[in-house]
């Protein structure tokens, strides 16, 4: 029989064995709870290295030894090596220390403790584990149904299992970052996944909710750093699906809005691999909404133009800004912002056109910077604006647009920096 307990780990030593993505997620979660995390592994992945550098964990770069379990309250082993994980479990059992064995793809965990599948609504945390042996897929299914009950007040607890068969690929648009903006269809696809190929942006926190036997492949890109080329990502999707696996390609935003989703669909179809697309909330629209900027507004503007900042202005975008007939949304435009401002001014755009730059839209540390076009590059540099960010150019970005006319209304000089994020979206509450 399994008992579900809340364990207080703040200020207590916890050992994480392994240096891969699973170990990184477990170590980060433990550090977030205030545990004193010790990591033992010959090598660590980049997220785990970042945690160590930030002071969230201490790392010993070697193979694990039995003495590493001395004086710890809890052990997480996630090496992916069956013999090593089994040895760690045995050492922990002999010391009467609970041990979570993250196991590996398609093999059962053998530890004395389990991490539950969790969902949170407000300040209520719900955890689900199986009492009849480890069954992570079932726990995730029940968790998702309970989450739906909390959101909508209606739940059907009948359990559905994915069946083995032909592999397939599902491109899932994860939205701008807030996990609550991932669609129900996207969550359902993740619940059926054997492999998740994930980007750096989007709802990366949802990866912590996956069962331990789901393989997560990080192919995230950052500005100027593309460790996994697109051709390699295409090959990976096809290869995993041809092995009979359900592969979810988790992307930030929408797969077909500067997400290179079309290239991945073509690669799958060329190889005869079934592929489908789950639309997502594009940051081109979500960032503006989260910042309180309506991309269209009756009496102000009725058209929207979305562009990639690295490509520079198109003739249509400049025309729309000159005659103030459209809002222009610039993705991937932070590094290009000074050049974009220079070229827009040279192209005859009014220097006082309002601009809003939304960093890390929908996340708790969202920040909005506002300034007129001719000042925005300098203001953004002074504020230390960094990617990921979305730039909104046009009259709808005026800071007082949605205020009643008695308080000033739109049209006043745009010379402020708004750094207060809106209340977080809490669809689960």
Describe the structure.
The model is unreliable at 152-163 and 406-429 (pLDDT under 50). It contains 11 helices and 17 strands. The strands form 4 sheets. The protein has a 5-stranded parallel β-sheet, sandwiched between helices. The relative contact order is 0.09. The longest helix is centred in the middle third of the chain and has 17 residues, at 136-152. Helix content is 28%, strand content 19%. The two termini are 31 Å apart. The protein is of the alpha/beta class. β2 (36-40), α2 and β3 form a beta-alpha-beta unit.
How would you summarize what this structure contains?
This protein has helices spanning 21-32, 46-53, 82-94, 136-152, 184-191, 230-242, 261-270, 283-290, 315-322, 337-346, 373-383, and strands at residues 13-17, 36-40, 57-60, 74-77, 98-101, 117-121, 124-128, 168-173, 195-198, 215-218, 246-251, 275-278, 304-308, 327-331, 354-359, 367-372, 389-393. It is α/β, with parallel strands linked by helices and 429 residues long.
């Amino acid at each position: 029989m399994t008992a579900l307990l809340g364990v207080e780990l703040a200020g207590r030593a916890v050992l994480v064995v392994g240096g891969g993505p699973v170990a990184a997620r477990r170590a980060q979660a433990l550090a977030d709870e205030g545990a004193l995390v010790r990591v033992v592994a010959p090598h660590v992945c980049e997220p785990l290295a970042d945690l160590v550098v930030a002071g969230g964990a201490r790392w010993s770069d070697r193979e694990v030894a039995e003495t590493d379990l001395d004086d710890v309250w809890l052990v997480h082993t996630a090496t992916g090596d069956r013999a090593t994980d089994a040895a760690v479990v045995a050492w922990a059992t002999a010391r009467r220390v609970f041990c979570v064995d993250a196991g590996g793809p398609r093999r059962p965990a053998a530890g004395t403790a389990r991490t539950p599948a969790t969902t949170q609504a407000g300040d209520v945390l719900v955890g689900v584990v199986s009492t009849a042996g480890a069954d992570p897929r079932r726990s995730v299914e029940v968790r998702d149904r309970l989450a739906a009950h909390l959101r909508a007040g209606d739940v059907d607890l009948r359990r559905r299992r994915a069946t083995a068969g032909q592999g397939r690929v599902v491109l899932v648009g994860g939205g701008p970052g807030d996990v609550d903006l991932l669609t129900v269809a996207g969550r359902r696809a993740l619940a059926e996944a054997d492999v998740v190929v994930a980007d750096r942006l989007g709802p990366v926190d949802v990866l912590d909710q996956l069962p331990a036997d789901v393989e997560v492949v990080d192919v995230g890109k950052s500005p100027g750093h593309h460790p996994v080329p697109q051709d390699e990502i295409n090959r990976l999707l096809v290869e995993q699906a041809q092995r009979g696996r359900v592969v979810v390609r988790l992307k930030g935003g929408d797969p077909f809005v500067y997400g290179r989703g079309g290239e991945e669909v073509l690669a799958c179809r060329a190889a005869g691999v079934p592929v489908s697309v789950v639309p997502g909330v594009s940051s081109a629209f979500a960032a503006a909404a989260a910042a309180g900027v309506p991309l269209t507004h009756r009496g102000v503007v009725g058209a929207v133009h979305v562009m990639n900042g690295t490509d520079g202005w198109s003739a249509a975008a400049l025309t729309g800004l000159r005659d103030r007939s459209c809002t222009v949304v610039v993705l991937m435009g932070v590094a290009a912002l000074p050049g974009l401002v220079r070229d827009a001014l040279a192209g005859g755009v009014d220097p006082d056109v309002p601009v809003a730059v939304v960093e890390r839209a929908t996340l708790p540390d969202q920040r909005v910077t506002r300034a007129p076009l001719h000042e925005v590059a300098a203001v953004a540099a002074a504020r230390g604006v960094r990617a990921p960010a979305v730039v909104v150019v046009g009259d709808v970005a005026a800071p007082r647009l949605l205020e009643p006319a008695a308080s000033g209304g739109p049209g006043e000089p745009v010379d402020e920096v708004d750094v207060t994020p809106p209340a977080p979206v809490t669809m689960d509450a």
